[in-house]
């Protein structure tokens, strides 16, 4: 469930656009006003505001934001203003570039979005980057990661609840056999993880747990230094219990010396309208402090206010 | 004699590609019991004398006849479906029928536009409660699996933008893979699959041109012995060549059943992209309602 707080009476998009324009005017910028508006409109509303702003002032809202804002606050506002599919396309593209490359972001996007959302990301990617997402991922990744990531981003999983228990049992066995033989990059493992529906995967993993005594991720911890194993575990987590994955990501981002702002910004802007409520619950359960407190303790200024607004912290 | 004429006419109506329903109707529809008996006795092609003293329907011909009668029905059923459902069903059947039919999967995955392929994948969810790639991955073994899964998962960029130097590098990669073909099959080469399954079609055309410059031969020539890999390469950039080849094979005199079925499939699914002289070929080979239906589809030409 979303934590985004949209007021009961939303001003007309033209009004919002005008207010935003005013916020940019003059020497400084009225960051609070920007937060008050953009952090309290849903994706459809933000889209209209962006369109209206462009028509009224001859400039894309994002361009104005880029001119006026800076660093982490700007990134948070910019990412949040983008439409979800565009945002994911942007993040994915960033993840394929040399200095910002991150297989983790690609995996996260591919596994935690629904089939239709992922397809919209691929469409948005065409439009924005004049290439297909899979071709960029194929070009910029290598070895086992490529074997895993290209099918992950190309998947169009069945989204129904139909499960085949016999299949779940047999595939649990296949996974067990491959893992026991330490064939982590085996084609069968990749096939099961990258093509089966999430419901089917859940059934398979439940069978794994019941039949073999350990949850699959426990068995995949055999070599704590193997990076690919880490990614496999994360893939499985993202496909089955995304809110736990995101909780961990947030925890690590906040506890790290300094803060991993990029991870923090990404998780919050991409999940605020999806399942942030569950992520917050999970965070509280796991860390005994609320996410709000943790963020307030670790960030400051407009960036902090933006993040807090997005996770529905009181009145921003 | 009228009987011999009838037999000759029926032979003609029952043989070939499709059946001549009109002739059959006029002859058999007006046959009484006696006439049919005479027909059976004189019609050595379809009936043979059985040791128990009756004119038995030759079993090998029964099967073929059934297939020919079905042709019109199958063509109509196929053409009435929404293109997405059509492609999804064709692929599902191809998966179940096995390796000899994998070229159909390649044909559909490579010759459809990105949106059409996406549509087929959506239809697959709806019809079979699974994703297309999951079904293929689960049923296809061996070296074809990676290629087929990758091909149906593609959502190629459809704009004209091409990266020339990348195309050149990729042509070199393909050339190397082909050269090392006797040591490692190109279809098992990950790079080859990545290039063919993810790049846009205009980009691939650039790659092919560079390949030709590097190797002096076209890539389709070099992959002649490589089964569905050749089909892939052909369908992606010169689909007309592929479809013409399939049609010619199916319309030839000694075509087998699968090749003949391909004729229906190609005409129904690609009517708007067919070469002009197909019509003449069909006039000569096909029969009956089946022929009329195919000609009608081609004449209309739209989806």
TrEMBL record, chain A:
SMART domains: ANX. It comes from the Eukaryota. Transmembrane segments: none annotated. InterPro entries: Annexin, Annexin_repeat, Annexin_repeat_CS, Annexin_sf, AnnexinD_plant. Ca(2+) 1 binds at residues 24, 26, 28, 68, 254, 256, 258, 296, 299, 304. One of its GO terms (molecular function) is calcium ion binding. The keyword Manganese does not apply. Keywords: Annexin, Calcium, Calcium/phospholipid-binding, Metal-binding, Repeat. One of its GO terms (biological process) is response to water deprivation. Ca(2+) 3 binds at residue 298. GO terms for cellular component: cytoplasm; plasma membrane. Pfam families: Annexin. A pair of annexin repeats may form one binding site for calcium and phospholipid. Belongs to the annexin family. This is Annexin. It comes from Corchorus olitorius.
TrEMBL record, chain B:
InterPro entries: Annexin, Annexin_repeat, Annexin_sf. Gene3D superfamilies: Annexin (1.10.220.10). One of its GO terms (molecular function) is calcium-dependent phospholipid binding. SUPFAM superfamilies: Annexin. One of its GO terms (biological process) is response to water deprivation. Keywords: Annexin, Calcium, Calcium/phospholipid-binding, Metal-binding, Repeat. It comes from the Eukaryota. GO terms for cellular component: cytoplasm; plasma membrane. This is Annexin. The lineage of its organism: Eukaryota, Viridiplantae, Streptophyta, Embryophyta, Tracheophyta.
């Amino acid at each position: 469930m979303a934590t985004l707080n949209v007021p009961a009476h939303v001003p007309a998009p033209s009004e919002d656009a005008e207010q935003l324009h005013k916020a940019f005017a003059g020497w400084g910028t009225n960051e609070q006003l920007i937060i008050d508006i953009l952090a309290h409109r849903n994706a459809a509303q933000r889209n209209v505001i962006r369109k209206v702003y462009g028509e009224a002032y001859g400039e894309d809202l994002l361009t104005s934001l880029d001119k006026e804002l800076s660093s982490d606050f700007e990134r948070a506002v910019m990412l949040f203003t983008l439409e979800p599919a565009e945002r994911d396309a942007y993040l994915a593209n960033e993840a394929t570039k040399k200095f910002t490359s991150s297989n983790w972001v690609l995996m996260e996007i591919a596994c935690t979005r629904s089939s239709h959302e992922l397809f919209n990301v691929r469409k948005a990617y065409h439009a924005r980057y004049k290439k297909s997402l899979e071709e960029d991922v194929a070009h910029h990744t290598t070895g086992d990661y490529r074997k895993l990531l290209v099918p992950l981003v190309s998947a169009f999983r069945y989204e129904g609840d139909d499960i085949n228990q016999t299949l779940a049992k047999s595939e649990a066995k296949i996974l067990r056999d491959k893992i026991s033989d330490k064939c982590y990059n085996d084609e069968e493992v990749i096939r099961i993880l990258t093509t089966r529906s999430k419901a089917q995967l859940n059934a398979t993993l439940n069978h794994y747990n019941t039949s073999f005594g350990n949850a699959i991720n426990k068995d995949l911890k055999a070599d704590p230094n193997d990076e690919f194993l880490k990614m496999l575990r994360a893939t499985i987590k993202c496909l089955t219990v995304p809110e736990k994955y995101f909780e961990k990501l947030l925890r690590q981002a906040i506890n790290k010396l300094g803060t991993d702002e990029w991870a923090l910004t990404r998780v919050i802007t991409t999940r605020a309208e999806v399942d942030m409520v569950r992520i917050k619950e999970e965070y509280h359960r796991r860390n005994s402090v609320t996410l709000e407190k943790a963020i307030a303790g670790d960030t400051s200024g407009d960036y902090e206010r933006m993040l807090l607004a997005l996770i529905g912290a009181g009145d921003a | 004699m009228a009987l011999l004429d009838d037999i000759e006419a029926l032979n003609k109506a029952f043989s070939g590609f499709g059946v001549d329903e009109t002739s059959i109707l006029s002859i058999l529809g007006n046959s009484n019991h006696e006439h049919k008996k005479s027909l059976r006795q004189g019609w050595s092609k379809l009936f043979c004398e059985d040791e128990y003293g009756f004119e038995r329907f030759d079993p090998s011909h029964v099967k073929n006849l059934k297939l020919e009668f079905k042709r019109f029905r199958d063509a109509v059923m196929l053409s009435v479906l929404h293109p997405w459902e059509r492609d999804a069903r064709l692929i599902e059947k191809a998966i179940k029928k096995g390796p000899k039919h994998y070229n159909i999967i390649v044909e559909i995955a490579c010759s459809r536009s990105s949106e059409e392929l996406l549509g087929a994948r959506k239809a697959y969810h709806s019809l079979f409660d699974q994703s297309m790639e999951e079904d293929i991955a689960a049923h296809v073994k061996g070296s074809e699996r990676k290629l087929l899964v990758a091909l149906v998962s593609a959502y190629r960029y459809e704009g004209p933008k091409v990266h020339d130097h990348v195309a050149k590098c990729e042509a070199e990669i393909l050339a190397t893979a082909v050269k090392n073909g006797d040591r490692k099959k190109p279809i098992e080469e990950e790079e080859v699959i990545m290039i063919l399954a993810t790049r846009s079609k205009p980009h691939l055309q650039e790659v092919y041109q560079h390949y030709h410059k590097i190797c002096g031969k076209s890539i389709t020539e070099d992959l002649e012995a490589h089964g569905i890999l050749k089909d892939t390469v052909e369908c992606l950039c010169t689909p007309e060549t592929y479809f013409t080849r399939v049609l010619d094979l199916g319309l030839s005199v000694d075509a087998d059943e699968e090749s003949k079925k391909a004729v229906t499939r190609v005409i129904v699914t690609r009517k708007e992209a067919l070469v002009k002289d197909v019509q003449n070929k069909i006039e000569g080979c096909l029969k009956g309602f089946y022929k009329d239906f195919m000609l009608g589809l081609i004449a209309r030409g739209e989806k």
